[in-house]
Amino acid sequence: MKWLQIHITVEQAQVDFTETLLSSLGAVSVTLNDAENQDLLEPLPGETPLWNKVIVTGIYAQEDDEQIDVEALETFIRTQMPEAPIRSEFLEDQAWERTWMDAYEPIQIAEKYWIVPEWMEAPEADAVNIKLDPGLAFGTGNHASTFLCLQWLGKVDVKDKIVIDYGCGSGILGVAALLLGARKVYATDIDPQAVLATKQNAELNGVLNQLYVGLPEEFNKVLADQKADVFVANILAGPLMALAAEFSTLIKSEGKFALAGIIEEQVTDVSNVYSEFFDIMEVEKRDENWYRISGSRHMY
C-alpha cells in the first residue's frame, strides 16, 4: 500500500473548512503544520493557538486494487479553493511506519524505572516499565521537561497517594505515578486528543480503572473537593503562572508539587508567583535550558 498526501496552504480562517473538505473526501487523517516558521505565544487554558498561514495535509490510503485518481481529486479541491496552493506526494507504506517507530528506544529514568515503546521488549522485565504509544500526544519522555517530571515522580513518595496530572498530554506522568504505587490519578488536558491518548496509554499499562481523565470543565466537576497529595503540571510558564492560585486549591496542606515546561529566563518569575502558596525546595535543570520547580504546599 502507498499513502497519498495532499498539502493545501491556507490562511488561518480557512483551516476548519479545509479540514472538513479533506475529511469529506475520504482522508484517513488530517494534520496541521506551520507554513511560515511562525513562533506561537504560549496558550492560556482553553485556547488553541494556530499559525497565521497553515499547511493542511490530508492522508489517503492508496490500495493496490483501488487507485486514487489524484488529478480528479486535486481538480475538485481547486473548484472549492481556487486560490490555495496544492501539492501532492506518495509515501511507501514501509517508510510511513518504520520512520516513525525507529525514532524511539527505551528510556531509563532511574534504576529499575523505564519508558518502553509498546512494540519493544522491556530491557528489565522486573522494573517499573511504562509502556507507551508515542504517536498519540505530547509526552514521550524524550523531552527534557517530561523526563524531569518522571524523574521527580520516582523520587517522591506516591504510594497510596492521590495524584493530579494537569496538562497530561500522552498520560505518561499519570501512568508512571500509578505504576509507582499511586492509589488514584486525576488527569486533565485542554486537547481532546490528549484525553484519548491518556486513556489508551493507561489501558495499555493496565491502570485505566485507577485513572480519571477529562477536559478541564469535566475534570473540575469530577474532582469536586478532592485534593492531591502529589501534583504535577508539565505545561508552559505563562499558563503555570496564570493558574498558580487555582493550583493552590487543588493540593493538600504540605502536599508535594512539581512544575515543568519552564526555561531558564522564566524560573525566577514562576518561583515568585508560586512562593505565595508554596515552599520552593528544588530547581532542577536538564538539557541546557529546561527546568523543573518543585516543593510543597504551605501548611494551612
From TrEMBL:
S-adenosyl-L-methionine binds at T146, G167, D189, N234. It comes from the Bacteria. GO terms for molecular function: protein-lysine N-methyltransferase activity. It catalyses: L-lysyl-[protein] + 3 S-adenosyl-L-methionine = N(6),N(6),N(6)-trimethyl-L-lysyl-[protein] + 3 S-adenosyl-L-homocysteine + 3 H(+). The keyword Cytoplasm applies. The keyword Cell cycle does not apply. It is found in: Cytoplasm. InterPro entries: Ribosomal_L11_MeTrfase_PrmA, Ribosomal_PrmA_MeTrfase, SAM-dependent_MTases_sf. Belongs to the methyltransferase superfamily. PrmA family. Keywords: Cytoplasm, Methyltransferase, Ribonucleoprotein, Ribosomal protein, S-adenosyl-L-methionine, Transferase. Its EC number is 2.1.1.-. This is Ribosomal protein L11 methyltransferase. GO terms for biological process: methylation. GO terms for cellular component: cytosol; ribosome. Methylates ribosomal protein L11.
